[in-house]
Structure formats: structure tokens, C-alpha cells
Design goal:
six-stranded mixed sheet; 2-enoyl-CoA Hydratase, Chain A, domain 1; 9 helices; binds ligand LHQ; alpha/beta; 10 strands
Length: about 260
């Protein structure tokens, strides 16, 4: 049987999701999208999972859309690219952005086009020192999709965002960290260990609190300070009733390590 185009390994309450078309730098085919949907369904249904890691097999993270699927003969009708975005990329980006547990992108190599922007929908990005980010869209006459025009200006400001998108120049991992596009750059050989250690820490952490952090950040983009203060208050009211808040404060006062249940 041929290898799955997306692999799933669950251990220590962490789901490791690996895009697995290394021969094409893990670019997205329709089949890979469909497999990823079913993998994420499996992860979400498994309540033992308290952190998710997304990475790529081989030397790339993801080169965006597989352009072989976009091949067109002179007599073919013009494509409607929105169909694919509607069906796959947009739901994927929304799903990762709102995923109920912390998500980490382990950028093991080049992340181009929609591949770069799918990574940006994760909560924390670690990149191997040799990795690169390329907003490749303008090279093929497109504008960024998969959330690029939303994430980029928010993360790095208009000047850098437009520069990256219009030039389609590769951005090194070190520069990506410097301008605030990612959390951390890590030596290539240490990437997966660093990421998995972080994910395992999340998986033993206060999962309900993490979920609320993500939710509050997501809505803050559109809120006034007044509204956001109310949302923070309502969140603390709920979190104050959790086991993990009680455990967090009690363990601090008892000078011991907390044992969180995630609820
Ligand atoms: C690929 C790809 C690829 C197929 C590498 N497809 N084979 C678009 C349209 C429709 C709707 C939805 O949204 C989108 C969003 C998008 O994502 S548009 C942007 C699509 N992506 C790109 O334009 C990037 C294309 N790839 C590249 O520019 C380079 O491959 C990069 C800079 C990523 C890496 O360069 P290298 O390290 O020099 O590797 P390579 O080019 O030699 O690639 C290795 C192999 O992977 C090669 O195959 P081969 O059989 O010759 O070894 C490539 O053809 C294949 N590959 N990207 N997107």
C-alpha cells in the first residue's frame, strides 16, 4: 500500500501531524487536503490529545498548492480557483486557527505560498535555521490566500508584509524570528526535539486556560479595549472555577509542581 500523504502519530497526549509528499515538498493535492481533514477529525475526536504539531516530511515544510493539479491545456476552460479555496484552504486555516488545543508548526524546511500561510494559522511557529518562507503567489500572478493578507500585516506590519508579498523574496528563518513572524528559530537537528518537548509541556498544561487564551486573542482583533476587558473578565470567571486554576494556585503556595488535568 502506498504511504499516506498525511501521517498521524499520537503519543504523550500530543498529535504529530506530518505532511507527507516529500518528493513535491509536501505541496497540497486535493487528496492530501482530504486526508488532512480526516486526520484533524481524528485528532479532535481524541480527547486525550492536548497539543498538536504540524510538520513536513523530508526537506520541505510545504510548497503550497501542487501546481501539477493546476496544469491546463489550451482548450481547457479557465479555472475557478475559489472552488478549491472554499472547499479546502479556507476551512483548514479557520480550523487550525481555532483548534481547541495549542498548535505548533515545526517548519523543517521551505514554506511557500499557501504552505507558509497555513503555518501562520498555528499558534506557535518554530523554524529550522535552514528553513525559508516565501510568499510565492505574485510569481504566478496571484495574491496571497490561506489568510496571508490577514496574518502578515498583523504579525509584521504593512511595510514588511507588502515587501514580502510583492517581492516574493525568500525570508530566512532568522529574519522571520527577528521581524516577529515566528516564535523561534532552532538549529535544524534540534527542531523536532525542541518542538516535541514544548508540545509535551502543553499537553500537561491547563488546556482549558490555553483554549481561553486562544479565543480571547482571536476576538481581540476586532474589539475595543472596553469589550476586550469584559471578555477577559468573563474568561477569568470561568477559568476560576476549573480544577487547573485551583491546582495552579495551590501548588504554587505548597511550593510543588502542579498536576494539571486540562479542565
Ligand atoms: C512542486 C511544488 C508545487 C508541485 C515544489 N507544486 N510541485 C494556488 C492556486 C490555486 C488555488 C489555491 O491556492 C493556491 C495557493 C498557492 O499555494 S500558490 C503558490 C504555489 N507554490 C509555489 O508557487 C511554489 C512553487 N515551488 C517553488 O517555488 C520551489 O519549489 C521552492 C522555492 C518552494 C523550493 O525550491 P527548491 O528547493 O529549489 O526545490 P525544487 O523547486 O527543486 O522542488 C523540488 C521538487 O518539488 C520539484 O520536483 P522534481 O520532480 O523536479 O524534483 C518541484 O517541481 C516540486 N515542487 N513545489 N507547488
Amino acid at each position: 500500500m502506498s504511504e499516506l500523504t498525511v501521517k498521524l502519530d499520537i503519543s504523550d497526549n500530543v498529535a504529530l501531524v506530518t505532511l507527507n509528499r516529500p518528493e513535491a515538498l509536501n505541496s497540497f493535492t486535493t487528496e492530501m487536503h482530504a486526508t488532512l481533514v480526516s486526520v484533524l477529525d481524528q485528532v479532535e475526536a481524541d480527547k486525550s490529545v492536548r497539543a498538536l504539531v504540524l510538520t513536513g516530511a523530508g526537506r520541505g515544510f510545504c510548497a503550497g498548492q501542487d501546481l501539477n493539479e493546476r496544469k491546463r491545456g489550451p482548450n481547457d476552460p479557465p479555472p475557478d480557483l475559489s472552488i478549491n479555496l472554499n472547499k479546502y484552504y479556507n476551512p483548514l486555516v479557520k480550523r487550525l486557527y481555532n483548534f481547541p488545543v495549542p498548535t505548533i508548526a515545526a517548519i523543517n524546511g521551505v514554506a511557500a505560498g499557501a504552505g507558509a500561510n497555513v503555518a501562520l494559522s498555528c499558534d506557535m511557529l518554530f523554524a529550522a535555521r535552514s528553513a525559508k518562507f516565501i510568499q510565492a503567489f505574485s510569481k504566478i500572478g496571484l495574491s496571497p490566500d490561506a489568510g496571508g493578507t490577514w496574518f502578515l500585516p498583523r504579525l509584521v506590519g504593512r511595510a514588511k508584509a507588502l515587501g514580502l508579498v510583492l517581492s516574493a523574496e525568500p525570508l530566512s528563518a532568522e529574519e522571520a524570528e527577528r521581524i516577529g513572524l515566528i516564535w523561534k528559530v532552532v538549529d535544524d537537528e534540534a527542531l523536532m526535539e525542541t518542538v516535541m518537548n514544548t508540545a509535551r509541556q502543553f499537553a500537561q498544561g491547563p488546556t482549558a486556560g490555553y483554549r481561553r487564551i486562544k479565543e480571547n486573542f482571536a476576538v481581540s482583533t476586532f474589539n475595543s479595549l472596553e469589550d476586550q476587558l469584559d471578555i477577559e473578565r468573563d474568561g477569568q470567571r470561568e477559568l476560576g472555577l476549573t480544577h487547573d486554576y485551583m491546582e495552579g494556585t495551590t501548588s504554587f503556595l505548597e511550593k510543588r509542581k502542579p498536576v494539571f488535568k486540562g479542565e
